[in-house]
Amino acid sequence: MNLRIREARPADADLLARWNLAMAEETEHKALDPGTVRAGVAAGIADPAKARYFIAMREALAAGRETLAEPVGTLMLTREWSDWRNGEWWWIQSVYVDEKHRRQGVFAALYRHVEQLARGSDGVIGLRLYVERANADAQKTYASLGMKEAGYRIYEAEFISARG
C-alpha cells in the first residue's frame, strides 16, 4: 500500500466527523452528538492553535496512469505546554483507521509523519497519547513504535456545554 500523509482541509470535515463518531462508539461505546462533533472538527481544521488533523491517503495507479487517492485513516494533534521542560508535548488524539485498512501500517505511517514533524519543530519535547485500558491491540501498536507507558492516569471533570 502506498500511503501519503496530508493535512486536513475544510472539505474533509464531514469524513473526519464520521470517523470520530465511529471511533467513540468502537473504543468507548459513546454515542456523540454528530452536530457537535462536526462543528468541533471544523473549528480544529480552521484554527491550527486548536488542532491539526492529518489524513493518510492510500494511492494507487488507475488504468489511465492517473493516481487515485482514498482516505484511509486520520489522527489529530493538540499541544500542551510543559513548564517543567520548557517545551510542548504534542498529543495524538482522535485516531481512526478505516476498518478495511487496519493492520496495514496506516497508523504507523501517520505516527512517523507527526514524529518527524515534532522532531523538526523547535520547542517540541515529545509525543503523547492516551489509550483505553482494555485496548490491548492499540497498546501493542504504540509500544512497537517506541512509545512507553507514562505511568499517569487521566482524571476529568466534564462540563456539558450547550454549544453545538
Walk me through the structure.
This is GNAT family N-acetyltransferase. Residues 3-164 form the N-acetyltransferase domain. Keywords: Acyltransferase, Transferase. The chain has 164 residues and is an alpha+beta fold. The chain has a single domain (2-144), classed as Gcn5-related N-acetyltransferase (GNAT) (Aminopeptidase, 3-Layer(aba) Sandwich), CATH 3.40.630. Helices cover 32% and strands 30% of the residues. It has helices spanning 13-28, 34-46, 106-119, 136-144, and strands spanning 2-7, 52-61, 67-82, 87-97, 124-129. It has a 5-stranded mixed sheet with strand order 1-2-3-4-5, sandwiched between helices. Strand 3 (67-82) and strand 4 (87-97) form a beta hairpin. Helix 1 (13-28) crosses helix 2 (34-46). The model has no long low-confidence stretch (mean pLDDT 92).
List the helices and strands and how they pair.
Layout: E1 2-7, H1 13-28, H2 34-46, E2 52-61, E3 67-82, E4 87-97, H3 106-119, E5 124-129, H4 136-144
Parallel strand pairs: 4-5
Antiparallel strand pairs: 1-2, 2-3, 3-4
* End-to-end separation: 38 Å
**What is the helix fraction of residues, given as a range?**
25-40%
- Based on the structure given, which CATH architecture is correct? 3-Layer(aba) Sandwich
Continuous helix count: 4
For the record, the count of structural domains works out to 1
The main β sheet shows up as: 5 strands, mixed
Strand element count: 5
Low-confidence stretches: none
Task: Summarize this structure briefly.
The chain has 164 residues and is an alpha+beta fold. The protein is built from 4 helices and 5 strands. 22% of the residues are buried.
